[in-house]
């Protein structure tokens, strides 16, 4: 479980995140949703320590991350897996080497054991047999899945996914969503996903925070989101006039 | 955010502090160092070989036609070539060429890793990204550059030999006598000290510009340019300082 309490962050005098609190539950897909530029990525970067919060606490299972020493923070980070919008795969390494990288750095497994783990992770994200391909040879969807394989290679307790299905067609996006959801349940980890894809919200949104103007504007789950009275959230969910009218007609 | 020269120097030293902190796993770092020795050093060998042979030849011909006074012995051609190649051409000029080739390579590689969030990915895994990415490059270059420069010296002198004889500037005996005449071993020590310092400058300064790249492709290009420009300026500055230290004894 990860709790964030009253975190704020500003850059060059501009407040990006304001007094945000939320609890991300273990074994659930926790979603951070909101418009582009609302502060979602900043929140996730604060949580993993890429930025330091101006104020507030980020508590990983009882340990206040910003207050830990560099070594303490590194120990927490070893338990984090993260996928980035662009995949952030290492260009100079094959898929196999990318997935093996955290195992090389942090385990004393034999070469054979590491290969078993790499193959397991690649199988798990449906990239069986693609071991020797380089990131440049992968499609957008494959890159996202490869990043996911690398993120779960070292059995993380916390999984962060920054827009895991952006730029993908709806069918592939749903495949990625379902994959993340099943991995979350299979390994009983705390998963945090940033998205502005409503399909993802409806498909896997078990615990949702809607961020607006850098603030926690609404919290709930996928069943509550469609019946919200929150004006800003409603406008976000039904950005399309056509969908809005269709939904309102269905309600009547 | 604008950085003053003083804060840039501060950031450089703070980066170097991270680069030289304890590695997460020595075996991985050693593997990376071997990779960098090949990537930065061995791959530079063809360009160094070509330049050295031609420059050695050019220095010999220029020396031969400059010494038209009968009071100057012909073996001075070999002597002049040796002094030029060992003292300045191989350690300084070849390192300036390496600053262009290796420096831009390092800055663009690390800069691209920065803008494509690969460095963030390393940090989130709990890896000291500065140490993992930069230390093997510095160690690899500091190790392999002296060998490259030794090869450059040899090829420079060989180029001078071939060109000197084929152009009729001197005989083989006179050239070989010249390159052995009045040889002082400490000059090699001076040359290789310069090379080690320049190897450190090229890799660390270029890595610094790559590591602090922000933005997109345009900024990666700018970092690459800055890496070459500032490495070259620092090479010349330290060449002057080391020459003063060694020759003003």
Can you characterise this structure?
The complex is a heterodimer of chains A (252) and B (249). By secondary structure, chain A is an alpha/beta fold. Chain A has helices spanning 40-48, 70-77, 95-106, 111-124, 140-152, 170-187, 198-204, 222-225, 231-237, 241-251, and strands spanning 2-11, 14-24, 29-33, 55-60, 63-64, 80-83, 158-162, 190-195, 207-212, 215-220. Chain A folds into two domains: 22-51 and 73-79 and 157-252, Rossmann fold (3-Layer(aba) Sandwich), CATH 3.40.50.300; 90-155, no CATH class. In chain A, the strands form two sheets. Chain A has a six-stranded mixed β-sheet with strand order 6-7-8-3-9-10, with helices on both faces. Chain A has a four-stranded antiparallel β-sheet with strand order 2-1-4-5, covered by helices on one side. Chain A is globular. Chain B has nine helices and no strands. Chain B has one domain. Chain B has 249 residues and is mostly helical. Chain B is elongated. In chain B, 82% of the residues lie in helices and 0% in strands. At the A-B interface, helix 2 and helix 3 of A face helix 5 of B.
Brief digest:
The complex is a heterodimer of chains A (252) and B (249). By secondary structure, chain A is of the alpha/beta class.
Per CATH, what is the topology of the largest domain in chain A? Rossmann fold
Outline of chain B:
elongated
Oligomeric state of the chains present here: heterodimer
Alpha carbon gyration radius of chain A? 19 Å
Q: What is the share of helical residues of chain B?
A: over 70%
Distance between the termini of chain B: 45 Å
General form of chain A: globular
Average pLDDT reading of chain A: 89
Mean pLDDT of chain B: 93
Helix content of chain A: 40-55%
Number of separate domains of chain B: 1
In total, the number of strands of chain B is 0
Detail the poorly predicted runs of chain B: none
Could you name the ranges of chain A where pLDDT drops below 50 across 5 or more consecutive residues? none
Biggest interface, and residues per chain? A-B, 25 and 16 residues
Q: What is the tally of helical segments of chain B?
A: 9
Going by CATH, the architecture of the largest domain in chain A would be: 3-Layer(aba) Sandwich
Q: Could you tell me the radius of gyration of chain B in angstroms?
A: 21 Å
